[in-house]
Write a structure and sequence with these properties.
The protein is mainly beta. Helix content is about 5%, strand content about 35%. A hairpin with a 7-residue loop joins strand 5 and strand 6 (about 70).
Amino acid sequence: MGGYTCKCAVGYEADKGSNVTGIDIKCKDVDECSRNLDACHAKATCSNTIGSYRCTCMQGLRGDGRLNCQKMQPCSVDKLCMENEVCKDFGGLHLCDCKQGYHIKDKSCVETNECNEDKSICGSNSVCTNTRRSYYCSCEVGFENKMDDGKNCYDRDECQKKNSCGDVAACENTEGSYHCTCPEGFTFDKKKTSSV
Protein backbone atom coordinates (compact mmCIF):
# COMPACT_ATOMS: atom_id res chain seq x y z
CA MET A 1 0.00 0.00 0.00
CA GLY A 2 1.53 3.30 -1.08
CA GLY A 3 4.66 1.70 -2.54
CA TYR A 4 6.06 -1.27 -4.39
CA THR A 5 8.57 -4.08 -4.12
CA CYS A 6 10.58 -5.91 -6.76
CA LYS A 7 11.20 -9.64 -7.10
CA CYS A 8 13.20 -11.69 -9.57
CA ALA A 9 11.49 -13.39 -12.53
CA VAL A 10 11.28 -17.19 -12.82
CA GLY A 11 14.74 -18.61 -13.57
CA TYR A 12 16.50 -15.80 -11.67
CA GLU A 13 17.33 -15.18 -8.03
CA ALA A 14 18.41 -12.18 -5.97
CA ASP A 15 22.15 -11.68 -5.84
CA LYS A 16 23.31 -12.14 -2.23
CA GLY A 17 25.07 -8.78 -2.30
CA SER A 18 21.91 -6.85 -3.29
CA ASN A 19 18.94 -5.64 -1.28
CA VAL A 20 16.76 -8.79 -1.41
CA THR A 21 13.48 -7.17 -0.30
CA GLY A 22 13.82 -3.59 -1.48
CA ILE A 23 13.59 -1.74 -4.77
CA ASP A 24 17.32 -1.95 -5.56
CA ILE A 25 17.29 -5.72 -6.20
CA LYS A 26 19.85 -7.29 -8.56
CA CYS A 27 18.85 -10.59 -10.14
CA LYS A 28 21.17 -13.28 -11.50
CA ASP A 29 20.52 -16.41 -13.55
CA VAL A 30 19.81 -19.67 -11.68
CA ASP A 31 21.84 -22.67 -12.89
CA GLU A 32 19.02 -25.25 -12.83
CA CYS A 33 21.37 -28.01 -14.02
CA SER A 34 23.65 -27.82 -10.97
CA ARG A 35 20.77 -27.41 -8.50
CA ASN A 36 18.24 -29.94 -9.78
CA LEU A 37 19.90 -33.23 -10.73
CA ASP A 38 16.49 -34.60 -11.84
CA ALA A 39 15.76 -31.67 -14.19
CA CYS A 40 16.36 -33.88 -17.25
CA HIS A 41 15.75 -37.52 -18.19
CA ALA A 42 18.38 -40.02 -16.98
CA LYS A 43 19.57 -40.46 -20.61
CA ALA A 44 19.82 -36.73 -21.35
CA THR A 45 22.30 -33.93 -20.67
CA CYS A 46 21.33 -30.62 -19.07
CA SER A 47 22.51 -27.25 -20.45
CA ASN A 48 21.89 -24.03 -18.53
CA THR A 49 20.41 -21.11 -20.52
CA ILE A 50 19.69 -17.55 -19.43
CA GLY A 51 16.57 -17.76 -17.25
CA SER A 52 15.97 -21.44 -18.02
CA TYR A 53 17.68 -24.71 -19.10
CA ARG A 54 17.65 -27.20 -22.00
CA CYS A 55 17.64 -31.01 -21.94
CA THR A 56 19.18 -32.96 -24.85
CA CYS A 57 18.87 -36.73 -25.27
CA MET A 58 22.11 -38.70 -25.69
CA GLN A 59 23.25 -39.75 -29.18
CA GLY A 60 21.02 -42.41 -30.74
CA LEU A 61 18.04 -41.28 -28.64
CA ARG A 62 15.39 -38.67 -29.25
CA GLY A 63 12.69 -37.03 -27.14
CA ASP A 64 12.03 -33.90 -25.16
CA GLY A 65 14.96 -34.75 -22.88
CA ARG A 66 12.94 -33.95 -19.78
CA LEU A 67 10.36 -36.72 -19.62
CA ASN A 68 11.48 -39.12 -22.34
CA CYS A 69 14.40 -40.23 -24.49
CA GLN A 70 13.53 -43.03 -26.93
CA LYS A 71 15.72 -45.11 -29.21
CA MET A 72 15.79 -43.94 -32.85
CA GLN A 73 14.80 -46.37 -35.58
CA PRO A 74 17.47 -47.47 -38.08
CA CYS A 75 17.03 -46.24 -41.66
CA SER A 76 18.57 -46.67 -45.10
CA VAL A 77 17.87 -45.84 -48.73
CA ASP A 78 15.47 -48.82 -48.84
CA LYS A 79 13.77 -48.14 -45.49
CA LEU A 80 12.56 -44.56 -45.36
CA CYS A 81 11.71 -42.63 -42.21
CA MET A 82 8.19 -41.61 -41.20
CA GLU A 83 6.54 -38.20 -41.80
CA ASN A 84 8.52 -35.20 -40.42
CA GLU A 85 11.60 -37.44 -39.99
CA VAL A 86 14.90 -37.50 -41.81
CA CYS A 87 17.61 -40.19 -42.00
CA LYS A 88 20.83 -38.96 -40.36
CA ASP A 89 24.32 -40.43 -40.14
CA PHE A 90 25.50 -40.79 -36.53
CA GLY A 91 29.10 -41.98 -36.94
CA GLY A 92 28.25 -44.61 -39.57
CA LEU A 93 24.94 -45.55 -37.93
CA HIS A 94 21.91 -44.34 -39.93
CA LEU A 95 18.95 -43.43 -37.73
CA CYS A 96 15.61 -41.65 -38.19
CA ASP A 97 15.53 -38.30 -36.39
CA CYS A 98 13.00 -35.47 -36.35
CA LYS A 99 13.47 -32.76 -38.99
CA GLN A 100 14.66 -29.35 -37.81
CA GLY A 101 11.81 -27.54 -36.06
CA TYR A 102 10.20 -30.81 -34.88
CA HIS A 103 10.50 -32.92 -31.74
CA ILE A 104 9.35 -36.38 -30.66
CA LYS A 105 5.99 -36.72 -28.89
CA ASP A 106 4.10 -39.99 -28.46
CA LYS A 107 6.49 -41.78 -30.88
CA SER A 108 6.00 -39.30 -33.75
CA CYS A 109 7.62 -36.00 -34.72
CA VAL A 110 5.49 -32.91 -34.10
CA GLU A 111 6.24 -29.26 -34.75
CA THR A 112 8.20 -27.49 -31.99
CA ASN A 113 6.89 -24.20 -30.62
CA GLU A 114 10.23 -22.49 -29.94
CA CYS A 115 8.44 -19.59 -28.21
CA ASN A 116 7.11 -21.95 -25.52
CA GLU A 117 10.36 -23.94 -25.26
CA ASP A 118 12.53 -20.95 -24.35
CA LYS A 119 10.69 -17.90 -22.96
CA SER A 120 13.81 -15.72 -23.29
CA ILE A 121 14.44 -16.62 -26.95
CA CYS A 122 13.68 -13.09 -28.20
CA GLY A 123 15.08 -11.10 -25.28
CA SER A 124 13.63 -8.07 -23.54
CA ASN A 125 10.65 -5.99 -24.79
CA SER A 126 10.09 -8.40 -27.67
CA VAL A 127 7.30 -10.74 -28.77
CA CYS A 128 7.97 -14.26 -30.09
CA THR A 129 5.75 -15.66 -32.87
CA ASN A 130 5.91 -19.35 -33.75
CA THR A 131 6.02 -20.25 -37.45
CA ARG A 132 6.21 -23.54 -39.34
CA ARG A 133 9.57 -25.12 -38.36
CA SER A 134 10.86 -21.80 -36.94
CA TYR A 135 9.91 -18.54 -35.18
CA TYR A 136 10.46 -14.79 -35.47
CA CYS A 137 10.80 -11.94 -32.99
CA SER A 138 9.28 -8.47 -33.18
CA CYS A 139 9.63 -5.48 -30.88
CA GLU A 140 6.70 -4.47 -28.71
CA VAL A 141 4.95 -1.18 -29.59
CA GLY A 142 7.20 1.73 -28.57
CA PHE A 143 10.40 -0.33 -28.76
CA GLU A 144 12.97 -0.96 -31.53
CA ASN A 145 16.41 -2.37 -32.23
CA LYS A 146 19.11 -1.37 -34.67
CA MET A 147 19.63 -4.86 -36.12
CA ASP A 148 15.92 -5.13 -37.10
CA ASP A 149 15.77 -8.76 -35.94
CA GLY A 150 13.17 -8.02 -33.27
CA LYS A 151 15.45 -9.22 -30.45
CA ASN A 152 16.54 -7.36 -27.30
CA CYS A 153 14.52 -4.24 -28.06
CA TYR A 154 15.06 -0.92 -26.33
CA ASP A 155 12.77 2.05 -25.77
CA ARG A 156 12.17 4.25 -28.81
CA ASP A 157 12.33 7.96 -27.96
CA GLU A 158 9.19 9.19 -29.72
CA CYS A 159 10.05 12.75 -28.67
CA GLN A 160 12.97 12.72 -31.16
CA LYS A 161 10.39 12.55 -33.96
CA LYS A 162 9.55 16.05 -35.16
CA ASN A 163 6.10 17.28 -34.14
CA SER A 164 5.29 14.25 -31.94
CA CYS A 165 3.29 16.64 -29.75
CA GLY A 166 2.71 19.45 -32.21
CA ASP A 167 4.43 22.83 -32.33
CA VAL A 168 3.72 24.06 -28.79
CA ALA A 169 3.27 21.06 -26.45
CA ALA A 170 6.20 19.55 -24.54
CA CYS A 171 7.02 15.90 -25.19
CA GLU A 172 8.08 13.54 -22.40
CA ASN A 173 9.41 10.12 -23.34
CA THR A 174 8.13 7.19 -21.24
CA GLU A 175 8.98 3.46 -21.30
CA GLY A 176 7.38 2.18 -24.53
CA SER A 177 5.42 5.39 -25.18
CA TYR A 178 5.41 9.19 -24.67
CA HIS A 179 3.29 11.92 -23.06
CA CYS A 180 2.42 15.41 -24.33
CA THR A 181 1.89 18.37 -21.98
CA CYS A 182 0.55 21.79 -22.93
CA PRO A 183 2.40 24.80 -21.53
CA GLU A 184 0.62 27.03 -19.02
CA GLY A 185 -2.25 28.91 -20.63
CA PHE A 186 -2.81 26.29 -23.38
CA THR A 187 -5.17 23.29 -23.69
CA PHE A 188 -5.30 20.49 -26.24
CA ASP A 189 -7.46 21.08 -29.33
CA LYS A 190 -9.57 17.92 -29.28
CA LYS A 191 -10.55 18.40 -32.93
CA LYS A 192 -6.92 18.18 -34.07
CA THR A 193 -5.61 15.62 -31.57
CA SER A 194 -4.48 12.38 -33.18
CA SER A 195 -2.31 9.48 -32.09
CA VAL A 196 1.19 9.09 -33.52
